[in-house]
Amino acid sequence: MTAQPSAGPTLTIREARPDEYEAVGEIGVRAYSALEAESDVGYLDEVRDAAARAAAATVLVAVEPDGRLLGTVTYVPGSGSAFAELQGDDEAGFRVLAVAPWAQGRGVGGALVEAVLARARDDGRAGVAIYTRPSMRAAHHLYEAFGFRRDPARDWEFERGEWLWAYELRF
């Protein structure tokens, strides 16, 4: 059995509200900007634009009881989504998993992944496929704790020397 991290009882996962999109985008930008060896600074504009993601996918947030946003993830329901990257016909995915730097280490990322996996199962998907950057070592450990495995056959070199690594989890 695979261990599944949990954030505990003081955290709620729900869909982001329009009045939160700007703050959601900033959480993403701060988290991605802090990554070691992240070179795709142009991607930060997409990370910041939570409203565009919410128009075509489901943007989830992790929230403390007082309403403070802790993190976010965008659920991609399948290959037909505008935000799909490598998902096959029977797979869901997610993008822009980000935890506010001050909230890291509290299980927020794990709670967001749990929410995505639950939605994928509820949607009848056979699994979840995602891309991650090679430098995102903490994310790799998190995904592997949930049972994700690397799928090098689906890795993508989006620019010369710039890679996205594929991970998948089959239910």
Can you lay out the helices and strands and say which pair or pack?
Elements: E1 12-15, H1 21-33, H2 43-48, H3 50-56, E2 58-63, E3 69-76, E4 91-99, H4 108-122, E5 127-132, H5 137-145, E6 149-150, E7 156-159, E8 162-170
Parallel strand pairs: 4-5
Antiparallel strand pairs: 1-2, 2-3, 3-4, 5-8, 6-8, 7-8
Tell me what you see in this structure:
The protein is an alpha+beta fold. The protein has a domain at 12-124: Gcn5-related N-acetyltransferase (GNAT) (Aminopeptidase, 3-Layer(aba) Sandwich), CATH 3.40.630.30. The protein contains five helices and eight strands; from the N terminus they run βαααβββαβαβββ. It has helices at residues 21-33, 43-48, 50-56, 108-122, 137-145, and strands at 12-15, 58-63, 69-76, 91-99, 127-132, 149-150, 156-159, 162-170. Strands 1, 2, 3, 4, 5, 6, 7 and 8 form an eight-stranded mixed β-sheet that branches. The two termini are 13 Å apart. Residues 1-7 have low confidence and may be disordered.
